[in-house]
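Lay summary

Proteins are chains of building blocks that fold into shapes. Our project writes down both the chain and a compact code for its shape. Here are two examples, one after the other.
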Amino acid sequence: MAGVEQMKVEPAEAGMRLDRWFKVHFPGLGFGQLQKLLRSGQIRVDGGRVKTDARVQQGQVVRVPPLQVDRKGTGENAPSHGAASGDGELLGRMLLHEDAKIFVLNKPAGLAVQGGSGISRHIDQMLEAWRNRKGEKPRLVHRLDRDTSGVLVIARTRLAAMKLATSFRERDTKKFYWALVKGVPRQREGRISTWLAKEQTPDGDRMRVVPHGAPGADHAVSNYRLVEQVGQTLSWLEMEPYTGRTHQLRVHAAHIGHPIIGDPKYFDADQNWDLPGGIQNRLHLHARRIVVPHPDGGVVDVTAPLPPHMRQSWNLLGFEDATAEEETF
């Protein structure tokens, strides 16, 4: 930059934290440097001093002083061949944690992690926008179902990917999900252990519970805990998968007679059951928290805010902590 620039906040950026806004536009600007510029008043919003956690709104003007760093489209996270316009910005809005080895995203419900039949946009494709100067594209190390929202860990380097993949494979990673299910389990806490096999259906792959020793069967283990309930109608469960099978939590919830609300594959409601008013018929399963060993030592512990449709349900049902520290994309 040659001099001071006045940048207007775009509609898609409304509600974004100021530090994330700078990360999107100036990926080379460090957090410490940003704080110094804010403290000295060199960065302002609509002429006023602000802090890193301030929320920018559409139409506001951000004063940006001369910065000796790359800005969006020219530097380390510059879009590369195969990246669609805006992918880097969208990923930046999902960002929950970033360091030299990993990103942690809050994946929105409805966005696929990888490509497949009928999928035109997915996280793996979008990561083309974040290739580094060496040409390395960030790597997926685990998956979430398309309609499941929440924490998704991405490795920034090949070596980090190898170490993280080992942590997931050896079950050194702890994953906690929040689900809204039909009915109330008899036991407030429980362990679900079954064998699962994949079957082909007109609506795509579906997992089913099968006897031990059945062809193609894999052992699947999940733990659950009842957090709150609404009469005998609905329950908020915290679920922890010990293994990582396809659709595991969804199948296990249905297996114990308490399918997840809005699940198009595994929720078979009887004719006398209706979705409570005000609750959207969308999958109510959210990867709330992950605790994963960091490739350089120590652990990374990240929590993801609820997606809008689940936050609406939590508020409607009066569940506590429904809006605590929640953020929107």
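And here is the second example, written the same way.
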Amino acid sequence: MIFQNLRIVFMGTPEFAVASLDALLSAGCQIVAVVTSPDQPAGRGMKLSESAVKKYAVLHQLKILQPEKLKSIEFLEELKSLQADLQIVVAFRMLPEVVWNMPHMGTINLHGSLLPQYRGAAPINWAIINGESETGVTTFKLKHEIDTGNILLQERFPIHKNETAGEVHDKMKEIGARVLLKTVRELIDGTLNEKPQTESKTKSDLRNAPKIFTENCKIDFSKSAIEIHNLVRGLSPFPGAFSELGEKKLKILKSEIEDVHHEKAIGTIETDHKSYLKIACLNGFILITELQLEGKKRMKIEEFLRGFRNF
């Protein structure tokens, strides 16, 4: 196999990165080490939890590095000792130059958007929130400014009008793994052409994808039905678009649009207490089809209404 003599260090943490690591390993790539986040306390008992990438690496008996600090002398010395030809980054933290510039073939990153659009930590979420009808994946060479390096390969695919971030995520991780593998193959055989990120549009036309915070998740029912529906899709299943029900947070995880004229006050709730619950917004209603009340499990609307007769 053409991959066998290439020494690769893979860097990643969540489930999204596992598909890429699996594709590389299955193709015969020599993964000399996996760099992932330190174990984190999680759950009610605050037990240490391993990242998805670490669990995969343990299962496949790969060398694992979990540095607290990427500039620590111990980590840098161990990384250098691996003599990697190439580093690959998928859903990991920002690297200092001393790390990404270490291998002679450089460091390549897989990003979940069509760069230069949606640079940042949450490209899937923001593409859906903004109502995009397509997205894609990009492999690129790392350099100083985040998500700005030369593009290696890209692949587009549609976002369907009711798809959630979770559904796009699952589709994207497989497409991304395939594009990443193709990138490595073409890098080895010398057929890959690097292209600078062309910002033909003005900077004001470029949309960024910053980290999602709680304030991004609260639903404003004075907005249009399509804007609210896109917010719900873009934050489902996690962290979830929310409103309040009494003193509890109510996450709306799936919705539909009822595009009708009404004279109701914004935020008015209508329900038959059996099969539907809808909320008045700017130009229609948002029908809630799946939700999760704080402290409860995720439910279809019918199940929720059966349990909350006096809602």
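What can we say about the second shape? The chain has nine helices and 15 strands.
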